[in-house]
Amino acid sequence: xxxxxxxxxxxxxxxxxxxxxxxxxxxxxxxxxxxxxxxxxxxxxxxxxxxxxxxxxxxxxxxxxxxxxxxxxxxxxxxxxxxxxxxxxxxxxxxxxxxxxxxxxxxxxxxxxxxxxxxxxxxxxxxxxxxxxxxxxxxxxxxxxxxxxxxxxxxxxxxxxxxxxxxxxxxxxxxxxxxxxxxxxxxxxxxxxxxxxxxxxxxxxxxxxxxxxxxxxxxxxxxxxxxxxxxxxxxxxxxxxxxxxxxxxxxxxxxxxxxxxxxxxxxxxxxxxxxxxxxxxxxxxxxxxxxxxxxxxxxxxxxxxxxxxxxxxxxxxxxxxxxxxxxxxxxxxxxxxxxxxxxxxxxxxxxxxxxxxxxxxxxxxxxxxxxxxxxxxxxxxxxxxxxxxxxxxxxxxxxxxxxxxxxxxxxxxxxxxxxxxxxxxxxx
Length: 428
Hints:
The chain is of the alpha/beta class. Helices cover about 35% and strands about 25% of the residues. It has two domains: about 300 residues, Aminopeptidase (3-Layer(aba) Sandwich); about 110 residues, Alpha-Beta Plaits (2-Layer Sandwich).
């Protein structure tokens, strides 16, 4: 039986999604986004609102940009919102919110939604609905190209629905920053609000599933690790005295080629890729510095760790070969963690009963990429809980992470209905 729910109307969800779409902010720069979420939460009867460093463990953040980048986005947010009280808590890139609703004794159910955008310039084409309807990104070079604006609407819409429902227990919504760099799941899982969660729901829109289709459990997220790489050598004149230099570019190029040569593992799929190679040297100067980002993935956490350890070994060997030094840092990370059978079954059964909105149900699907929701799911499981990562289908005109990505806004109410019903059933 589907719980009796009274979700917000479609117009509210659409307007909410479009407002967040107009104001995309990349990882750890979600200053306006966090403040706007707090605005919306304060208009409800939530019992607790935890902001920034009260929502996450700041020491566990990964992939935090430099101070100049943070300051640029902070100033933009300050000009766009009249919430200096919220922004003060977010300085230095400690973004994110946890909202809590308490209604007596009972289980604790959590919903995680991610809130960050991508560094992509949004299309201005006539066939791109956000451009023609006037809610295209207002920030050059940033775009909600993966549906996280819809996820925020899911979170706020589900919260409002739960507030209007009868239950006993606690409901939490984790508005998580920095998913796109896989840097926000770990600090949110290390924060003070996940330990008592008995059941956890995560959600993603689209993923090549059409509007009306619901995936009750998305599994097989590849474990992931992103390395920041900095080679240091010694500069010299490339024509007059190259022998006096220690060439960081040579070390980097050697390492890049060798990373792709790491033997694949017989226990399952592995990935490696190198990007953002850069050096500031002129062609007549032996480079004293060069840097890059490298990422590895694995079908399991152990396979990812095999690739990461091999990558560090390759980087160190390339540095030694060219008489340079190298420093590596973890800029993003996520383990493999799959959905729990009991929660998948519950979501599938509830979705099948939403016959007026849900056209089809896929019991289990495969992600094939990486997601740091797995940090939170792993933490919940470690404490004896269970959870699932739900897919809400939407017709999107192009793939995720493209300048023309968009969603079918009819999927917003479907997501809220499915997530609210599942949360209330788990609370029961």
